[in-house]
Design brief:
This is IS4 family transposase. This protein is 31% helix and 21% strand. By secondary structure, it is of the alpha+beta class.
Length: 418
């Protein structure tokens, strides 16, 4: 991790290598920012370490990481990290007001990462026919919608601002005047803040003309005066039981996809729900998996190298979790190469039991078949995978054991292969 010959550029190319091979009809790009807190290890770092800084509270030592994950829209399986940015904030940085932040062009702001990540991701996948770039409220920037992306790119962003429209109204007031146009059910996955439940949702949409905000007037020559975009509002009307203090779901979404009917509106919402996958990915890298924040390395650069390596493994674990029931032929190749598939086949007989219920009944080389093997290595007891599927911790444990055995297998394979 402290080898200066190992550059972040090289690690980044290795991480995004699977992306260059993609030849898909539709790729979903999900991006977000997370932070890793190393305050508990402050004493390990040099005071002049330029590769680590403070987090949003301006006190805690840490790093920000902004990844973009690429998913095959048809299967929901992630195939790689399409882009990754790691950055830190200096402790002695000036306040936004003193830096003239509002006068800066977007390319000089940290928020430019939302635009650059899409551009860099798309450039790596020339064979992909369509992209949907999804992000949460932090990406609700006029500059993002005004940016001249590749024609294959469509945006789907959750609204953070009640924006002014060309007709003089604000977005929320305008949509309040529109009729609700459909209802549907949404399965809510519970966590510490919300309950598992089936929420009853209602939906409406409209084409709106958003006005360039006054904060960009100084840069008006760089942005159109208005932008035409589709606005979708979804609201929870019946929720069953919610956790104490839990607010009902209520989203405003912007999209550059065409939305003229209920099917298209519901499709946009379904795509947006996939943004939660990146939250699962972040949890996997923290206390529920790789525990990056417990690292004992004593330099910011070593931590950055570690993040690249951990992310490469974490995306595989997420792919296994997503593909637990995917029996499509050869889908395991989304995660494993030829040598790894050979090892999986070699391990299988010793992991199966004597009865049919203890056998791997999935098609060979499907991702469900591979998940069954990795889960068994991780201690999972064979049973109906739809009733009690292996979780990410079990899959992570199994993948670690698999990697250990892979090293010896490669040595043997190199001696016997032509």
């Amino acid at each position: 991790m402290n080898n200066e010959n190992v550059t972040l550029e090289d690690l980044g190319e290795l991480l995004s290598a699977p992306c260059h091979l993609q030849d898909l009809d539709h790729v979903v790009l999900v991006q977000d920012t997370t932070q890793y807190n190393f305050e508990a290890h402050r004493g390990r770092f040099s005071a002049d370490d330029a590769d680590i800084g403070v987090l949003g509270d301006n006190r805690s030592l840490g790093l920000f990481v902004h990844p973009t994950l690429g998913f095959d829209e048809a299967t929901g399986i992630p195939f790689g990290i399409t882009d990754l940015a790691i950055y830190q904030l200096p402790e002695d940085r000036e306040l936004k007001a003193n830096r003239g932040y509002t006068k800066q062009p977007i390319t000089e702001k940290h928020s430019y990462r939302w635009i650059k990540s899409i551009e860099d991701s798309v450039a790596k996948m020339p064979k992909v026919k369509n992209f949907t770039a999804i992000a949460d409220r932090e990406a609700d920037m006029y500059e993002l919608f005004a940016h001249p992306f590749d024609s294959r790119v469509k945006l789907l962003i959750r609204s953070a601002q009640n924006r002014k429209l060309a007709n003089g109204q604000l977005l929320h007031a305008y949509l309040d005047d529109q009729p609700w146009q459909g209802e549907y059910e949404l399965e809510i996955k519970g966590n510490k803040k919300r309950c598992d439940r089936t929420a009853q949702m209602t939906i409406r949409w409209s084409t709106v003309e958003v006005v360039c905000p006054s904060s960009l007037h100084r840069l008006k020559k760089d942005h159109p005066a208005t932008i035409s975009i589709q606005a979708i509002e979804v609201k929870e009307i019946e929720a069953g039981e919610r956790a104490e203090g839990e607010e009902p779901l209520h989203w405003y979404l912007y999209t550059t996809h065409e939305v003229t009917n209920l099917v298209q509106a519901l499709q946009a919402v379904e795509w947006y729900v996939k943004r939660w996958w990146i939250e699962d990915f972040f949890r996997l890298t923290k206390s529920q998996g790789f525990e990056l924040e417990k690292s004992q390395f004593s330099s910011g650069m070593a931590l950055k190298r570690l993040i690249y390596l951990v992310y490469g493994e974490a995306i595989k674990v997420l792919a296994l979790r997503q593909g637990r029931t995917l029996t499509v032929s050869d889908s395991a190749r989304l995660v494993f190469d030829n040598v790894e598939l050979l090892l999986l086949k070699a391990l299988l007989p010793k992991l199966e039991g004597r009865t049919a219920s203890q056998a791997n009944q999935n098609p060979t080389n499907s991702i469900a078949w591979a998940v069954w093997i990795i889960a068994r290595l991780g201690g999972w007891t064979p049973r109906n995978i739809n009733v009690r599927p292996p979780g990410v911790i079990t899959l992570l444990s199994g993948l670690k054991i698999f990697k250990q055995r892979l090293e010896g297998f490669k040595l043997i394979y190199s001696q016997i292969s032509p």
